[in-house]
Amino acid sequence: MSRAGTSPRLLRRTNLAAVLQVLRDAGVVTVTDLMAATGLVRTTVIAVCDDLLDRGWIQEVEGSSGAQVGRPARRSRFDDRAGFVVGVDVGEARTTAVVADLRGRVLGRETRVFADRAPVRRLATVDAAVDGALADAAVVPAAVLAAAVGIAAPVDRRGRISHGQPFWEAFDHGFERRLQKRHGWPTLLANDANLAAMAERWCGAASGVDDLVVMLAGERIGTGVMEAGRLLHGRSGAAGELGGLALVQGVGSPDGIAALCRAWGAEALRPGAPATALRDLAGPAGTVEARDVFRAAAAGDDVARRILDRLAERLARIIGLLGTLFDPELVVIAGAVAESSAVLLEGIDRQLPRFTATPPRVAVSALGDAVVSVGAVRLALDHVERHALDLELGAAAG
After folding, report:
1. Which of 234, 202, 192, 215 is nearest to 332 (CA)?
2. Which of 23-37, 44-58, 69-83, 136-150 has the lowest mean pLDDT?
3. How high is the pLDDT of residue 66?
4. Do 253 and 222 share a structural domain?
5. 249 plus 282 within the same structural domain
6. CB neighbours (10 Å) of residue 91?
7. Helices 371-386/8-25 angle, 10° precision
8. Coiled-coil intervals in this record (predicted)?
9. CA torsion sign, 239 to 242 to 248 to 251?
10. What CATH number corresponds to the domain at position 63?
11. Which of 78, 94, 118 is the last residue of a domain?
């Protein structure tokens, strides 16, 4: 009786995946290069390259890699335009869609604001964002091999959204089913913080880090947690949800940096409050945004600096809790406000030992508000790589 681990089809998939990964990560390679990188014998590498060439995944490169006697070495390269993937970030107020090639390079992007909360309008807005990103990338829908959608709600391993809170239920509109029905693409659904963790480990501040927490800290704080390089989901996909911060002394809510800056900025503008540059920076409605607080603090405003001190202590308490629960090597502060948050790192690092015996390193993301869509691209690429033998690439050439 044959064992699944040694079945010809599984062995073929394993060898193909190994060779394809080397080709994708490298430039032009020879059969000898592939043998050294994969440990496969020459006949196997040649057979896999022939298969990949027939399927459209790679191209043969003419010319020699150097002066040599006899027949030039066979040289191949990965065709990163053999197909494309789509990544979508569906937030509460807006959605962003990106189109990327098979190396993950973003070729097109479109952001649309949700005009209202009606499900049919939200679905139409996501459609418009995806169509705009495809047009921006000059990619036809038939060339897309897979898509992924990130939402601000827990998603279990089977792609189902948890209904534990009304806020989560507001995202259960079938965004992934809509894209699959409309375009025929395999479409995956995932939690936005989990996608942020995938993005940071793939091409961000956490590159090469296996024990990791990525904190989306804009409006509400949520985390994606990796242990030994594996995402933690939990039974219903709610691992990393931090609604319980309401119970944490000195924190009191899962509000993020943007929400807190608005709330504490409003306090600073009350009648009788100390003079502050925030009064001049506030919007027409008297609303103070996070960018205003960071700007005023950089200019030396004492009130704004005190707000940042409060933020640093609050984040230190949260990161201390994460350090105690998960013992990560690194915590990355991510999201639209991450870049400005670099000024908080000194205060966070100074206070962390007060709140945990295992303080992690803390960094801020450089991916900005693209972090979720980049993670969605990574998830879609993972799907493409797992199913390379099953995908038809002919449409991409068209």
Report:
1. 215
2. 69-83
3. 52
4. yes
5. yes
6. 20
7. 140
8. none
9. positive
10. 1.10.10.10
11. 78
Residue 338's alpha-carbon distances to 63, 189, 279, 281, 311, in angstroms, are 47, 24, 24, 20, 13
Please write down the HEC assignment for all residues of 34-80. HHHHHCCCHHHHHHHHHHHHHHCCEEECCCCCCCCCCCCCCEEEECC
* pLDDT digits 0-9 by tens, 281-307: 998 888 999 999 999 999 999 999 999
Q: How far is CA 149 from each of CA 80, 88, 235, 276, 380, rounded to the nearest angstrom?
A: 22, 5, 20, 42, 9
Average pLDDT over residues 247-267: 95
Residues 275 and 350 in one domain: yes
Distance CA 174, CA 156 (A): 15
Whole-number Å distance between alpha carbons of 95 and 185: 19
User: Nearest-CA neighbor of 218 among 365, 325, 18, 20?
Assistant: 365
How much is the pTM? 0.91
- pLDDT band, residue 392 (cuts 50/70/90): confident
Please check whether residues 225 and 319 belong to one and the same domain.
yes
pLDDT digits (tens, 9 = 90+) for 143-196: 999 999 999 999 999 999 988 888 888 898 999 999 999 999 999 999 999 999
CB 245 within 8 A of CB 308: no
Q: Which H or E run includes 332? A: strand 330-334
For the chain, how far is it from start to end, CA to CA, in angstroms? 44
Q: Which of 36, 55, 78 is a domain's end point? A: 78
Cβ-count burial of 374 within 10 angstroms (0-12 exposed, 13-18 middle, 19+ buried)?
Answer: buried
What is the greatest pairwise CA distance in the chain? 88
| Residue 301 belongs to domain spanning | 207-366
pLDDT the model gives residue 6:
59
Distance CA 87, CA 171 (A): 17
CB atoms within 10 A of CB 54: 9
